[in-house]
Design brief:
Length: 384
């Protein structure tokens, strides 16, 4: 029987374009905040998730680099990569180490600093999560692939764009009172629909922007958790993979890896979808959020937009979603994003979400995707 895993502390940097702050400073700041929040000064292992640092900073070996910065050079420290789900992959590795009994406490960090590259360099770097010989060499981008899926979705279900474009409006509304959010202001649907195309029909305000940030978690086993005064949540994480390119799949409008990882996580946690009171979905684009809601079983196919229209995903709705602004408004510093999602669930469930606190926050679920759902991690946190 595996050991249970608990989140005992979280640390977040503000998501922004940190022109004068280094990658190692960001991940060190988040780590120190998490260690302080948990009330610990040492861990058995460190895992660091990052996607872009080998390209934009020409810096790998982040595990040892962070251990040095923290004065923990003797501790095993490993870098982890799974495209835009790199942070979740680091959480997965850390959780498995605690479950196996090899560690009592693990520090997990997600980090990326995108402002060190020009927009074209960042766009190209994001494509390392795709199959280069089939897709990258023809000049396709992450956003052009999303645009193709977007068009397919609207055509198949006969849906107007404004139904889907409501998602970024929701995220910005939730970010207003989020102290670590990159864009803490409201926007109107007209703003989204009047923004320029990135790749038709996908518009600028339906995508994320260049962002820098780091987020950290301290994971512990039950015995260690009992010795700490910090508020804790129980964590369950599962993963699945799929073909890298969505157009290799039987249906580009269905994410099997999301479906599978969600079902596995719920089964392990012994919970049903009706037990999930908060949802963090991976809205790297508005259409990805819609398809994730449907593939994970929180909406019927072709009808996720109805949750938006009815207000079900608002902070006071039946399934509050992206409660600190999601990728769109909190910001999407690629490798760090998944850890932000999990940390935000932890703040909700431990009643420390401030003005963003939702009622009945007893269990939450985060979807973290690499590429266009070629890797999917589902993390569940619940009260202890």
């Amino acid at each position: 029987m595996s050991n249970k895993v608990y989140v005992a502390g979280v640390g977040l940097t503000k998501v922004d374009e940190h022109w004068w702050t280094s990658l190692e400073y960001l991940m060190t700041e988040a780590s120190l905040k998490a260690l302080d929040d948990a009330g610990v000064n040492k861990v058995d292992s460190i895992y660091v998730g990052s996607m872009l640092s080998p390209v934009l900073q020409e810096q790998g070996h982040l595990g040892a680099l962070l251990a040095e910065e923290l004065g923990l050079s003797s501790v095993p420290a490993i870098g982890v990569e799974a495209a835009s789900a790199s942070g979740a992959a680091a959480v997965y590795a850390g959780a498995r180490e605690i479950e196996s009994g090899r560690a009592n406490a693990v520090l997990v960090v997600g980090v990326d600093k995108m402002s060190d590259g020009l927009a074209e360099e960042v766009t190209a770097a994001m494509m390392i999560g795709e199959r280069q010989e089939y897709v990258g060499f023809i000049g396709a981008t992450f956003y052009s692939l999303n645009a193709l899926i977007y068009r397919l979705y609207m055509d198949k279900y006969n849906i107007d764009q404004e139904k889907i474009a409501l998602f970024p409006v929701l995220c910005h509304e939730h970010a207003v009172n989020a102290p670590h959010a990159q864009y803490p202001f409201k926007i109107k649907l007209e703003t989204v629909l009047n923004s320029p195309y990135v790749a038709e029909p996908l518009r600028r305000f339906e995508t994320t922007a260049i962002a820098d940030g780091a987020a950290a978690l301290v994971l512990v086993n039950e015995e260690t958790g009992k010795k700490l005064d910090s508020p804790k949540t129980e964590l369950v994480i599962e993963a699945a993979t799929d073909y890298l390119t969505p157009f290799q799949r039987e249906d580009p409008l269905w994410f099997p890896a999301v479906q599978l990882s969600t079902s596995k996580a719920l089964e392990r946690a012994k919970l049903g979808r009706q037990d999930i009171k908060i949802l963090e979905t991976f809205d790297a684009t508005s259409i990805m959020a819609i398809l994730s809601l449907e593939s994970s079983g929180f909406s019927e196919r072709g009808k996720a937009w109805r949750l938006l229209e009815k207000g079900e995903l608002s902070l006071s709705g039946s399934l509050p979603c992206n409660t600190f602004g999601g990728l769109k408004a909190r910001g999407h510093p690629i490798g760090a994003t998944s850890v932000y999602q999990i940390a935000e669930l932890h703040l909700q469930i431990t009643r420390r979400a401030g003005k963003n606190q939702v009622d009945n926050a007893v269990a939450g679920l985060a979807q973290s995707l690499g590429g266009i759902a070629s890797t999917a991690f589902t993390t569940i946190l619940r009260e202890v």
